[in-house]
Amino acid sequence: MINYFDSYKMCSIFCTFRTYYMKIPVLNISQFKASTPLNDVYINAFSNHIQRNKNLINKPHSHNFYLCVLFTEGTGTHEIDFNSYDINPGKVFFLKPGQTHFWKFDTEPQGFIFFHSQEFYELKFLEHKLHTFPFFYSNQNPPFVELPPKKLNELNQKFQDAYSEYSKTHLFRELKIVNAISQIYIELARAYTVNVNLEKLNSSNYSNTLETLERLINTHFYKEKFPKFYADKLNISTKHLNRVVKQTIQKTTSQLISERIILEAKRLMVHSHGNLANIAYTLEFSDYAYFSKFFKSKTGMTPLEFRKKYF
């Protein structure tokens, strides 16, 4: 029988383990500031950005802010949470806080980048939240949109205007910038959903449930790995929760939980110094053999094979 002090000691060791082994660099906006910065927002030409911050972004990292980047020139790959996407002119990428990413360029990139905190946007638009934009709504939605030439020219000008305003110190500068970002998001959301049934998109009941489910999974997936826990939290039956997930993203609740566990496992395997047994312990699997079997069933590789292949 474990007494209170033993439990406290085990908890301390476990918390220390998580802190020590999770070594993904998490960058914040202040690290990217140049001159006369505004709080919680940053805008730059992309070529300037990567040149000025090459020591920050030369390896996989995550952010504590929302990011949007438009490419007008250049080719390469952009890896976001272990999925690779082509970089080419007209491609726009979106990242939410916590996602891991890095760039690899084959030809010199040009374009614009901005990022901002959640508060920077939502304190100005109290009735509109960032998650209502489809590219920030769900991790299941693609983190990019590809613009046709005419739309690319239009959005390039809007990014240029936002960058120009950011580079000056005029009256109401912050207000103009947040409005410029809002206009960019609206135009990008329209391009993103050009082939989407808007009636289905605006049907909010199931969408709200899915959003809450994803937040719950992010909070509890270390410990809670079965759908019943999440259905109970949402005050609905497991059957109804599966119906919601199936109709919105054509998956099951179990798949969503497994995908989040696998994503965290990959992050730990790539960005931490922990051995694989300790990673299994961090993810609260009963033993490494069970974790390895689970990981292989979902990815087709053992944890060791994944780590070797990735590097």
**What distance lies between the first and last C-alpha atoms, to the nearest angstrom?**
43 Å
Oligomer: single chain
CATH-derived architecture of the largest domain:
Sandwich
What is the percentage of strand-forming residues? 15-25%
- Domain count: the total is 2
The main sheet comes to: 8 strands, mixed
| CATH domain fold name of the largest domain | Jelly Rolls
Q: How much is the radius of gyration in Å? A: 21 Å
Low-confidence stretches: 4-17
Task: Identify the CATH class of the largest domain.
Answer: Mainly Beta
**What's the rounded overall pLDDT mean?**
86
Encode the helix/strand succession as letters.
HEEHHEEEEEHHEHHHHHHHHHH
Output the structural class.
alpha+beta
CATH superfamily of the largest domain: Regulatory protein AraC
Q: Helical proportion?
A: 40-55%
Using the alpha-carbon principal axes, give the shape: globular
Number of strands: 8
Tally of helical segments: 15
GO molecular function: DNA-binding transcription factor activity; sequence-specific DNA binding
Domain HTH araC/xylS-type: 211-309
Protein name: AraC-type DNA-binding protein
InterPro entries: AraC-bd, Homeodomain-like_sf, HTH-like, HTH_AraC, RmlC-like_jellyroll
Short structural description:
The protein is α+β, with helices and mostly antiparallel strands and 311 residues long. It has 15 helices and eight strands. The protein folds into two domains: 174 residues, Jelly Rolls (Sandwich), CATH 2.60.120.280; 108 residues, Orthogonal Bundle (Arc Repressor Mutant, subunit A).
